[in-house]
Amino acid sequence: MVPLENLLVLSAIMFSLGVYGVLARRNAVLILMSVELMLNAVSLNFVAFAAYLDPDKVLGAVFAVFIITVAAAEVGLALAIVIRLFRNRATSNVDEAAIMKW
Amino acid sequence: MGAEEAWLLAAIPAGVFFVLAIFGRALPRGGDYLGVAAILSSFVLFFVVLADFLDTPGKIGPVINDVEWSNIGESFDLRMGIYIDPITITMFAVITTVALMVNIFSIGYMKGEPRYYWFFAVLQLFAASMLMLVMADNLLLVYISWELVGVCSFLLIGFYWEKRSATEAAKKAFVTTRVGDVGLLIGIIMLWKATGTFNIQEIIHLVEEGHVGQTYLFAAVAFVFLGCMGKSAQVPFHVWLPDAMEGPTPVSALIHAATMVVAGVYLTARLLPIFEYADGALLMVTIVGLITALLTGFIALAQTDIKKVLAYSTVGQLGFMFVALGAGQPAVAMFHLMTHAFFKALLFLGSGSVIHATHHNQEMDKLGGLWKKMPITGTTFFIGSLALAGIPPLAGFWSKDEIFVVLNEEWGIWAVALLGLSAVMTAFYTTRLFIRTFMGKPMDQHVHDHTHESGLVMTGPLMFLAFLAVTAGFVVFHGVGKGLGFPGGMTEFIFLPHHGPHKYHFDAAWALASVVMGGTGLLAAGWMYWGNSTAKSTQLAESQPGIYDLLRNKFYFDELYQAAIDRGMLGFSYVVSWFDRYVVNDTGVDGSAQVTGFSGGVLKYLQTGRLPNYAMAVAMGVLALAVVGLVVRG
To answer: A31 touching B, CB under 8 A?
Structure first.
């Protein structure tokens, strides 16, 4: 069996990549993908801990399913916003959508 | 059926009040017959209660005492109940009798008035509250009834609310008595705090056992007495009662002469054991009563409005009752309360009959010579006047005479001299009132020509009350009391437990003194006004303009209060309003809004609207929290 540490390190790498993507990218679609990456890292964490610490129960898996569901809904909403943005501004660059202020 | 059903006395009129208030407008004749029927049933029930009370010797005390009102754990268990003793019985007799007479009289007097049904509705509410007040066994219930009768008084004084003076008078009555009522509430709370109960008998018991300190008790009693002074219009709260005459005259008879205004006397009599225990409280009661009796006696000399004279006389007679209480004699006070209720209700209803017959004319300067025109009203008014003046063998003589006797025993001859002066003036202004209304030649021929005797519905109650004004005084005798089924005369019926009953005995010397006082006033007034001539009195008034103006203007009490309100109260209000305007509003409310607005205006530049900035802030925040978490955990 793969040691727990390996899975956690993988999860950490995925999460960090996600954070980097969210901070560094300017394309809204790419930012969304990075967010998904972070969510998946968290899911992986849940599943890994569940499998190693309490294999009889499926609590971790339940959380993972939850996260997937929420993520799907979130992406659906966010992509709709991105489409509206693109229709109005002909761009998906978040720097150009800076009107959310006073 | 027995004393346990006493609650029905109040419940029936209360129920009829709701019926009349809601459906009265739609009922034929405004439902006045329902009102009379309600009071009549109370009147009949009173005799049932009385019979049960007399059949059971020594039956004094609570008849219902287990109705739970409010219960908050062990520390606060409030029960309400009904307590019936001779004082309550006397009050029942007065209230039901006078209320019945006034209700019947009102059918004639109020005929054709707007809001006829409403008048009868409030009369029922008043009767219910007043009856509740006198049978309540705890001070909280007393206080509630106390305020309810105040509300009824307010509603009925302001019955003609189209008239500005009526609304002003109603407001004045309510506010003035309210000043005293605040005192009453404070007193009740103080007594509760010291004894842990609202039940009157328990409070008396605990006070007698010495559970309450002297100074504290005196303060509590003084506050309670403040409420009694307000309700019973004692100086300096007397100003509202004469103005209350703006109400319809039957109301003046019932509420502002016979029943509500004696609530203060009743409560003081009920709590007299506590008053006795608090050093100096009885002296305070006596002094207030004496001052009131004297002051209002002087004022009444110079009034020309029939009802105003009677109003000041009522205040004065209430002073007499307080003097009797101050001498530690509840029986004498209740005796005078009863006789006074009968003859003063008679006088007020009589003046109502005059006012009705002369199309709302109540100025003496326009009346005179009415006896021939209104024989029944004139004769009954004559009887009432003599009773008020204290001429034997009418009711007022016996009770007033007893007050002189007990006052002399308790406080000495000087107090009697002061009260005697008031009695002389009472006889004087009563005679003046009678002569100038009913005798001599009419002052205004036009008014005189249109006057006619009132119908039987109005003269009937007058005759009944006149009968009581003649006979009510005899109940003081042992034989008369026995004959009626009581244990004996008034003083053997009502007494403080530790004094015991004492038998009335006729004291010829005091009776003579009393007759001399009444006779002096009567003859002086007769000499001055005989034939309804004002020549002598005008001459006297012109020779002493200062004194006359002082009396005419009621010792400037109203002006004094007005000035106090204008200067003191309005000045204080100005300061308060300034504080509210500039400190609370401009600085406190507007100021904090401005601070928020200003800081918002500065801080808004933190919002860039750029997504990466926010993302970075979130990431940095999480990082910072993680670092803090690590450091804290060590």
So the answer is: yes
